[in-house]
Amino acid sequence: MASTSNRTSGGSFYGGAAPYRSREGLSTRPVASSDEIQLRIDPMHADLDDEITGLRSQVKQLRNVAQEIGSEAKFQKDFLDQLQMTVIKAQAGVKNNIRKLNKSIIKHGSNHIVHVVLFALFCFFVVYMWSKLSRR
């Protein structure tokens, strides 16, 4: 058995990776293509029914995990679609309000600059009077 000597010598089948062994009766061996794995069953050490049952349960678990991943991905996609629609509606609302504000400023005039200048002059006057009164 070449795989037995390879297993015991610490070598590997796939360039440094340890060989896959599920139980005593099953072992992998290298093939020409890296995508393929050949499984060799040693009938002397294998209890095939246990191996098949174990593989079936693992396949069922993997199928359940894959279904859960699929349902979670669908839920996340739906959530992102709803979030995207909410953001689009919010952007449209902000754009509409800015347009209304611009129309209002144009219609009623832009006296806000005059108000800011008058407020600044008032603040300087208050600080000036406060400094005059604090020197006495």
**Overall morphology:** elongated
Report the helical percentage: 55-70%
Q: How many domains would you count in the coordinates?
A: 2
In percent terms, what proportion of residues is strand? 5-15%
DSSP summary, beta strand count: 2
By oligomeric state, this entry counts as: single chain
Distance between the termini: 109 Å
Counting DSSP H or I runs of 4 or more residues, the number of helices is: 3
Low-confidence stretches: 1-19
Largest sheet: 2 strands, antiparallel
Q: What structural class is derived from the secondary structure elements?
A: mainly alpha
Q: Please trace the helix and strand order, writing H or E for each element.
A: HEEHH
Structural summary, described in words:
With 136 residues, the protein is mainly alpha-helical. The chain has two domains: 1-46, no CATH class; 47-111. It has helices spanning 2-8, 48-108, 112-135, and strands spanning 26-29, 38-41. A two-stranded antiparallel sheet has the order 1-2.
List the helices and strands and how they pair.
Blueprint: H1 2-8, E1 26-29, E2 38-41, H2 48-108, H3 112-135
Antiparallel strand pairs: 1-2
List keywords for this structure.
single chain, 136 residues, mainly alpha, 2 domains, two-stranded antiparallel ribbon, 2 strands, 68% helix, elongated, disordered N terminus, membrane
Describe the structure in brief.
Helix content is 68%, strand content 6%. The chain contains three helices and two strands.
